[in-house]
């Protein structure tokens, strides 16, 4: 059951597949020889390297009875060695074996030594290649959706546990990058993240831009005055350029005229057109979200330490239950009254903030201080919150993969976005099971 050499087109084999074949040794080992006709014995395949340098490190093998310790490099064609300029790179002088699908040219290390080559195209089972092609070239967004039921639940759950943690760690990296740009200020960083989350899906980018140009430090100086807080937020956001709206808008405009000179915010003031109002309910308008953000800032001068020290989900929810100013309880835009009173964020919106901001911040701080306690708290928080409801989660549920908690839904989002859409089936335990079995 070995692949019929040239019968398998090279375009159907990717380097990631060869990594899988080598890592799991899924090829015919009978009479293993290099392209120079030297007998090969594999003792240790090496450790998969995800950083720069050869693909597998610390391998051990023998060539013609002589033992070698070093690295293994993998390519589709031998000539890729030269295309990637490895022949000029001294880091690759310790490569003891070049594993390729197709040997099309002899290659050399930078020290002039010829590179031993193991060609695999006649050694990989056709059935394995067919399973790989069926999965990786599936046109669906979730490539394994037609085969998903074939995988054991324990393998699926194991992958989901990994995905939820990876999502937290990936978000942690982004937060720590932002922390560095903010010169180590956690308060500034968390303020920006909270503001972004208050924009939810439609206005997240605009909210983040606002928070980046209107610093938390400036807001903190006026935090004891609700009117000043709203004047700064709505003014920099570009909502106070209109005239004759109503008495409250005029009051904010007058106050912002003074504050903008004091803090020189006019140079980076946004425009109303940068905010999305289309196909949104009035309660979700960016004006309402800005009013909610203003109420939150007015209630909590410094909220990073509150996130760290509020350990119960009830306490964390209460952080975001700040009541709106009287004007915004009965308006959804300047000069436009609401049909029903609105006092602040609803419970569902607060849970979204806890999932997308508080949990990642705890995970990032865990990585920052090297204390797993905060990561455990992030994971525990996700386990206590209900699963999100959206198109992606619904698609997984239709495949029989239900999400009961936010930990589950976050895992499924990560799996879809970072693995399924990127066709990284060979890095997924579910995909590996389908290809290997």
Shape summary: elongated
- Spans with pLDDT under 50 lasting ≥5 residues? 1-8
Cα(first) to Cα(last) distance is 15 Å
Estimated structural class: alpha/beta
Radius of gyration: 29 Å
Mean pLDDT: 93
Largest sheet report = 6 strands, mixed
Assembly state of the chains shown: single chain
Per DSSP, the total helix count is: 18
Q: How would you spell out the order of helices and strands?
A: HEEEEHEEHHHHHHHHHHHEEHHHHH
Organism: Reichenbachiella agarivorans
Pfam families: DUF2851
InterPro entries: DUF2851
Protein name: DUF2851 family protein
Write the layout of secondary structure elements.
Elements: H1 15-23, E1 40-44, E2 47-48, E3 56-63, E4 66-77, H2 80-83, E5 95-102, E6 117-119, H3 126-136, H4 153-181, H5 186-198, H6 200-213, H7 216-221, H8 226-237, H9 247-263, H10 286-299, H11 304-309, H12 313-319, H13 326-329, E7 331-333, E8 336-337, H14 347-369, H15 372-384, H16 391-398, H17 406-420, H18 429-436
Parallel strand pairs: 4-5, 5-6
Antiparallel strand pairs: 1-3, 2-3, 3-4, 7-8
InterPro entries: DUF2851
Protein name: DUF2851 family protein
